[in-house]
Write a structure and sequence with these properties.
Blueprint lengths: L5 H24 L5 H15 L7 H5 L3 E2 L1 H10 L4 H8 E4 L4 E4 L7 E2 L4 E2 L7 H5 L8 H11 L4 H13 L6
Antiparallel strand pairs: 1-3, 2-3, 4-5
């Protein structure tokens, strides 16, 4: 696994994000028949090369959505009531109808080693992040457009997708 250099990653994002988002839009509009098999193969390569603990950017720059189940499970783990947990750690976003972290970086992230202090009971959104191989990839391409700016694994997936998938010039 390769340690992630966030400075270098940010530069690559700045240079390539627009082209990557445009590519993902093309894939959305005209998904190749073999999209899932291509992405499944890429996924294995990406994770063999990605060291999330050398990055932690998702926990530093993004916030998960906490479901009612997440809140119950995590508050029990912390020996708190769900109400107390929400009051201490979360904010309700009315327009999205979502519970999210009250601060960034995530209050459960240890900045020294990028480990999560509630990893065993973390929110489902965190456990599933960055959603690289969802069953219906086409339903998550809009999420990847956002995540390429934060997640080196997503960035690398899209970079490899661009190598594997070509669109005929009109």
């Amino acid at each position: 696994m390769i340690a992630i250099n966030l400075r270098s990653f940010k530069q690559k994002v700045r240079y390539n994000a627009k082209a990557f988002k445009s590519f993902l839009t093309k894939v959305e509009k005209n998904p190749p028949k073999n999209l899932h098999s291509v992405v499944d193969a890429i996924d294995k390569k990406v994770w063999a090369e990605t060291d999330c603990l050398s990055c932690g950017n998702c926990c530093k720059k993004m916030t998960p959505t906490f479901t009612v189940k997440d809140i119950k499970r995590i508050s029990e783990h912390l020996d708190m009531t769900p109400k107390g947990f929400k009051e201490k750690y979360l904010v309700y976003i009315k327009k999205d109808k979502d519970w999210q972290n009250v601060k960034q970086p995530c209050q459960f992230l240890n900045l020294k080693d990028n480990k999560c202090s509630i990893y065993a009971v973390r929110p489902a959104d965190c456990a599933e992040f960055p959603h690289l191989t969802k069953k219906k990839m086409t339903d998550y391409l809009h999420v990847h457009k956002q995540n390429i700016s934060f997640c080196p694994a997503t960035y690398n997936m899209v970079e490899r997708m661009k190598e594997e998938i070509s669109f005929a010039k009109k």
